[in-house]
């Protein structure tokens, strides 16, 4: 009977061998946009995705509480009725990393997503829809946090 530690060590060795042999798909890493997740402002996130300044739109909806009792788990939802949406984003303006979530969509996917996010303090939250032609549309809501979730 193997211990959990031995199993993890052996799994790491196998993963390392597969990576050096080139068996991991490079396309999976190509989809990761590290610059967007490291961005410190809404404008920087839009720049990382190649989109212009977002415009307010009634076709994008954001669902979030007015007051979050615990900033460690704030429920949020984004949806849109816009056609040709490529990405749906959730941004929290005052978080250490502004981009909280990114969802890739296509015509086969209904652009309606729910998640939970950490918020360190009260902030404006944005739901952003980026279309295939690089246009960005947003909905915004202020969420007040009573107990911080990012180390607070």
Describe the largest sheet: 6 strands, mixed
CATH architecture classification name of the largest domain: Sandwich
Tell me how many strands there are: 9
User: How much beta, percentage-wise?
Assistant: 35-45%
Q: Provide the CATH superfamily of the largest domain.
A: SoxY domain
| Unreliably modeled segments | none
Provide mean pLDDT, rounded. Answer: 85
Shape: globular
Q: What is the third-level CATH name, the topology of the largest domain?
A: Immunoglobulin-like
Given the structure, what is the number of helices? 4
Task: Tell me about this structure.
- By secondary structure, the chain is an alpha+beta fold.
- The protein has 2 domains: 1-31; 39-145, SoxY domain (Immunoglobulin-like), CATH 2.60.40.2470.
- The chain is 23% helix and 36% strand.
- It is built from 4 helices and 9 strands.
- The protein has helices spanning 4-21, 26-30, 34-38, 42-48; strands at 55-56, 60-63, 67-68, 74-80, 85-92, 99-104, 112-117, 123-131, 136-145.
- The strands form 2 sheets. Strands 1, 3, 5, 6, 8 and 9 form a 6-stranded mixed beta sheet that branches. Strands 2-4-7 form a 3-stranded antiparallel beta sheet, with no helix packed on it.
- It starts with a helix and ends in a 7-residue tail after the last strand.
- The mean pLDDT is 85.
Features of this protein?
152 residues, alpha+beta, six-stranded mixed sheet, three-stranded antiparallel sheet, 4 helices, globular
């Amino acid at each position: 009977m193997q211990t959990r530690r031995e199993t993890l060590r052996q799994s790491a060795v196998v993963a390392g061998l597969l990576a050096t042999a080139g068996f991991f798909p490079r396309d999976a890493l190509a989809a990761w946009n590290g610059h967007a997740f490291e961005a410190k402002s809404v404008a920087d996130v839009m720049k990382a995705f190649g989109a212009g300044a977002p415009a307010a739109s009634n076709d994008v909806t954001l669902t979030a509480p007015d007051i979050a009792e615990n900033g460690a788990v704030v429920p949020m939802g984004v949806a849109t009725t816009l056609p040709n949406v490529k990405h749906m984003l959730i941004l929290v303006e005052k978080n250490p990393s502004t981009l909280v979530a990114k969802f890739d969509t296509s015509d086969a996917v209904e652009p309606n997503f729910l998640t939970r996010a950490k918020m360190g303090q009260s902030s404006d939250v944005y739901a952003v829809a980026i279309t295939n032609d690089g246009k960005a549309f947003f909905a915004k809501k202020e969420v007040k946090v009573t107990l911080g979730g990012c180390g607070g």
